[in-house]
Amino acid sequence: MDIHVGDIITMKKSHPCGSKEWKVMRVGMDFRVVCLGCGREMENKRSAIEKSIKIVTRAGRVVSKEELSVTRTEKWAEMGKE
Ligand SMILES: [Zn+2]
């Protein structure tokens, strides 16, 4: 999945604070994201975060599933490294 730093991801489950939106701070094998509701930072494996993503918003518009697939980053993931 092609996620960029600065993207806003909407998760399937909400954070305890009630927000489902997170901003991407760092991408790689692990993602660092910050909750837009309470500002808490979380770091998790790429695969775990990708599974829980519902919507990706980039520069104010929703990124389609097609745009998110077939990317360099996906090839890197297949190789097991960045
Ligand atoms: Zn929160």
| Strand portion | 35-45%
Poorly predicted runs of 5 or more residues: none
Sheet with the most strands, sense and barrel status: 6 strands, antiparallel
What is the C-alpha radius of gyration, as a whole number of Å? 12 Å
How many domains make up the coordinates?
Answer: 1
Mean pLDDT: 89
Give the cofactors and ligands: zinc ion
Question: Structural class per helix/strand content?
Answer: alpha+beta
The helix fraction, in percent, is: 10-25%
Overall morphology: globular
Q: Count of helical segments?
A: 3
| Beta strands, count | 6
Strand-helix topology:
Blueprint (H helix, E strand, L loop, with lengths): L7 E4 L9 E6 L3 E6 L5 E5 H7 E6 L2 E3 L1 H4 L3 H8 L3
Antiparallel strand pairs: 1-2, 1-5, 2-3, 3-4, 5-6
Overview features:
82 residues; 6 strands; alpha+beta; binds zinc ion
Provide a compact summary of the structure.
The chain is α+β, with helices and mostly antiparallel strands.
Report on the structure:
The protein has three helices and six strands, in the order ββββαββαα. The chain has 82 residues and is of the alpha+beta class. The protein has one domain (8-79). The protein has a six-stranded antiparallel β-sheet. The mean pLDDT is 89. Zinc ion binds at residues 15, 17, 19, 35, 37-38, 40.
